[in-house]
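Researcher: Sequence of Binding-protein-dependent transport systems inner membrane component follows. Predict its structure.
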Amino acid sequence: MRYLLRRVGFFLLTLWAALTLNFFLPHFMPGSPINTLRAQTKGRVSDAQLQQILTSFGYKPHENIVQQYVDYLGNMITGNWGVSLGSSLGTPVSKLIGQSLPWTLGLVGFTTILAFLLGSLIGTIAAWRRGGVVDSVLPSVFVVTSALPYFVVGLFLILFLTVDNTWLPSSGNYDTSIVAGFSPGFVGSVLKFALLPALTLLITSIGGWVLTMRNNMITTLAEDYIRMGRAKGLSDRKVMMNYAARNAFLPNLSGFAMSIGFVLTGAILVEKIFNYPGLGYQLYNAVNSIDYPMMQALFMLFTVAVLGALLICDLVTVWLDPRTRAKG
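Model: Prediction complete. Tokens:
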């Protein structure tokens, strides 16, 4: 119980520090929402009218900074994230995030989990059969793929699969001629449009999990309890999965928890290349239009996601590894 309380306390302290930093960062950015709106309206609206519009939406740059900070913390906690000051001027931020979140979770979330599980499995097999075909070929290939930038892989896939061969769509999230709903046609369209960005993420991210799991397994296989398991006459599969992989898997959990932040940012470059309307695409637009409410809400969500994933990771590690529950 003391361990749990200590981790929760650390979570709350880190969250407060991140929210404080999140409040000040947008204010240090060059430009302002007024300049953005002035460019959009092309001078047809006076600065006084623009200021009045932004004030009605909750943007009060002349208010005392301390009062702004207090109001900001209260709004972040209560979910009152204000309205967008960007291209979707006046639309509640919570509504825009609610529209984008399912697309990001469905695409990037599923792909990240799949890459983590497949990479860990391939790394386990490569280390267990060290020197074999899997260990000789795949790690070298994944070293190359993990070093490739996301946007380069995405552009090559667009070139080969949509330009040279019109097999897959290159942008969007579904065919707009199909009525949205849980129909076979709509679900198939969603999967078809998600295939290219998902493949881009899978190619560039699976290599890291393969290499780290392989290295962890090689270190674990030299431990005494592995020799004990073999001496007891246990099957190779049981020694590999229950003794070696279970312990080698633990360091990867922390890395996976950190990658949750990547899930919610939605791989900004990938979503931008494929015009996929996820949270990463929303963040890109918010930065371009100096949309303070949207940026602050998204940064807060990313922070909570990473900290929450790390907290869950600590609890899972305690459950999987009895040594962490020992005192001293």
